[in-house]
Write a structure and sequence with these properties.
With about 400 residues, the protein is of the alpha/beta class. The protein folds into 2 domains: about 10-55 and about 300-345 and about 360-365 and about 375-390, Alpha-Beta Complex (Aspartate Aminotransferase, domain 1); about 60-300, Aspartate Aminotransferase, domain 2 (3-Layer(aba) Sandwich). About 35% of the residues lie in helices and about 20% in strands. It has helices at about 5-15, 60-70, 85-95, 105-120, 140-145, 170-175, 200-215, 285-300, 300-320, 345-355, 375-390; strands at about 25-30, 30-35, 40-45, 95-100, 125-130, 160-165, 180-185, 190, 195, 215-220, 245, 260-265, 325-330, 335-340, 355, 360, 365-370. The chain is globular. The structure holds pyridoxal-5'-phosphate.
């Protein structure tokens, strides 16, 4: 089948919930992907950060291939060889606690919301404060947690117990707290909201409020986690640990896996039978995630992310001096947004025509988030294309 035939088949049989660029992607290696017609693209937006180590990282491919020969699925009424090992790895890199495995970011956040409800329920607390312009997923509870009406419209009535307040505004959080409040959920860098970086005082302030009032502080690190910001987890930049952290996107190096990490204080809140996920923590997904940790360490990818993030930022700042449409560049390491004074759609389209894949968030923020293996040459090439695409 050719590209047109494949697209026609989608139109006939796949529910059209996505706006798709008319390209069929058939192969990926590192920062390169190829379409069915043999065109090669430079990928500076690998699946919303999913392919954080680039496409088909050999260590991930090998780990998965080896495990596939042993067993594919082990149900969660038994133990598999790898869930405990991966949980230990996550804990060693984050904070003292335990992990629940699932398959996606929304599901990880659902787990966090359920933990919060379960913890608050003896005190009659259930409300959760989230931020405007946040993004937490597409299930009913997580679209309600998401402080953007466009994701909620048409799905009312929404579940009760969610309130969203302006981002980076401590007073707004304080004012929103009632005796029903059980916790706060926040992204350290809002991804879908347009790469909005949380302030240090803000995050320290949220921690203080939660400690004072015995509220649960949830950091949604689904997009920021696993090294993209130059630290394994973005909260390390702030020196403030959450009570609960959620992960997904790049955790599995391309394979679906999500995790909800709860600090030691909340052990025993979720008891046997209270929460589950059929596919959660499958040995295949765990083998991929363990390989991701290994690759980051072995190939010193955090150091590369910081170096290349700095270089990319510098090149984009240079570009900004020549392009009046660039209003601001912000982010950390390889999670960068460029706010424009115009809509970004045409520029994304122009880049695509020149075989560079980027993204636009929130209408006017170009998002560049190459895999952690990126090098100078690739950055130079991408910035050159962006330059031309803005003419
Ligand atoms: C993508 C994303 C989610 C949702 O993840 P899914 O795997 O699509 O369910 C949640 N939170 C943040 C911050 C995200 O970027």
């Amino acid at each position: 089948m050719n590209t047109q035939e494949i697209i026609r088949q989608y139109e006939g049989f796949v529910i059209k919930t996505y706006t798709r660029t008319p390209v069929v992607v058939v192969k990926g290696k590192g920062l390169k992907v190829w379409d069915l017609d043999g065109n090669e693209y430079l990928d500076f937006f690998p699946g919303w950060a999913v392919s954080g180590l680039g496409h088909c990282h050999p260590m991930v491919v090998n780990a998965v291939r080896n495990y596939l020969k042993k067993i594919i699925h082990v149900p969660n009424n038994y133990y598999n060889m790898l869930q405990g090992k991966l949980a230990q790895k996550i804990i060693e890199h984050s904070f003292k606690g335990k992990v629940f495995f699932c398959n996606s970011g929304a599901e990880a956040n659902e787990g966090a919301i359920k933990l919060l409800r379960a913890y608050g329920s003896p005190k009659g607390r259930y409300e959760i404060i989230t931020m405007k312009d946040s993004f937490h997923g597409r299930t009913l509870a997580t679209i309600t947690a998401t402080g953007q009406p466009k994701y909620q419209k048409g799905f009312e009535p929404l579940p009760l117990g969610f309130k969203s307040v302006p981002f980076n505004d401590l007073k707004a959080v304080r004012d929103a707290i009632t005796d029903k409040t059980a916790g706060i959920m926040v992204e350290l860098i809002q991804g879908e909201g347009g790469i909005n970086v949380a302030g240090e005082d803000y995050i320290a302030g949220l921690r203080k409020i939660c400690d004072e009032k015995d509220l649960i502080l949830i950091f949604d690190e689904v997009q920021t986690g696993m090294g993209r910001t130059g630290k394994m987890f973005c909260f390390e930049h702030y020196g403030v640990a959450p009570d609960v952290m959620t992960l997904a996107k790049s955790l599995g190096g391309g394979l679906p896996i999500g995790a909800m990490v709860a600090s030691a204080k909340f052990q025993g809140v979720l008891k046997p039978g209270m929460h589950a996920s059929t596919f959660g923590g499958s040995p295949i997904a765990c083998s991929a995630a363990l390989a991701v940790f290994e690759a980051i360490k072995k190939e010193r990818l955090l150091a590369n992310t910081n170096q290349m993030g700095g270089y990319l930022m510098q090149r984009l700042e240079e570009l900004k001096t020549r392009k009046s449409i660039i209003k601001e560049i912000r982010g950390k390491a390889l999670m960068i947004g460029m706010e424009l004074s115009i809509e970004g759609r045409d520029i994304v389209e122009n880049c695509f025509k020149q075989k560079l894949l980027i993204n636009c968030a929130h209408g006017n923020v170009l998002r560049v988030m190459p895999g952690m293996i990126v090098n100078r040459k690739q950055i130079d090439k991408a910035v050159g294309i962006l330059d031309k695409a803005m003419n």
